[in-house]
Amino acid sequence: MPKKIIILRHGEKHDAYQLCSTGVERSLALEAQYLGKNATNAGELFKHGEVPAAFFAITLHTIELASPSAQSWNLPLIAYSAVPAGSSPWSDSDAVLDARTVQAAADVLSSAWDDKVVVMVWEHKHIADKKLNKQKVTLYSLLGLDTLGSDVPDKWEGANYDFFWVVDYDGKSPTKFRSVLQTYTAPYADLPQNAWGVAATLPSDCQS
After folding, report:
1. N or C: which end of the chain has fewer CB within 10 A?
2. What is the DSSP letter of 44?
3. What is the pLDDT of residues 23-68, one digit of tens each?
4. Cα 203 from chain centre
5. How far apart are alpha carbons 193 and 161 in whole angstroms?
6. DSSP per-residue string spanning 26-42
7. Model's pTM, two decimal places?
8. Residue 69, SS3?
9. Cα torsion for 137, 143, 148, 151, to the nearest 10°?
10. Rounded to the nearest 5 degrees, what angle is found at the Cα of 126, between the Cα atoms of 183 and 68?
11. DSSP 123-153
């Protein structure tokens, strides 16, 4: 198993295809202050000497958010892609998101990532959702977060784009969970830093 998995949601969105101005700004802020090479706040996620070994994504929104950070490390972005393609068999329907999440979780827990740090940028209902957890198609159920007790939310709140879930593993199972609020300094200090479950006020080009 990996040493650590860092999970976050995609940025604020404009439509089914792209992030809005706030989401784009968040992608750049994440690279500069949390997830990128030489990020100023990296110590909140990574212990001394730790670096990300892989970035995983699923939808266009998650790919757009993760790309600046992955590029800063000269790492590929591993995408189990689901796209807004209408009735296409590759569309981001619930069934495709279910299947792709199961595939990605199996990959992340494979020996390829033993004792490494992996970042997963995901669609929020397939991070954690009470109904989907029971079907075992969420990261919450597939990565063993459901074994860590009540401190782990069993639902990723739809209002929140501004948290990390940090999960430590001991080689056999998850051992520790932390929820970390993304807080930014200039030039990104205007990004929403809303509490869990509390909606932020977004500009007009962003969907609520």
Report:
1. C
2. G
3. 999 999 999 999 999 999 999 999 999 999 999 999 999 999 999 9
4. 22
5. 9
6. HHHHHIIIIISTT-TTG
7. 0.96
8. helix
9. -60
10. 45
11. -GGGT--HHHHHTT-SHHHHTTGGGS-TTS-
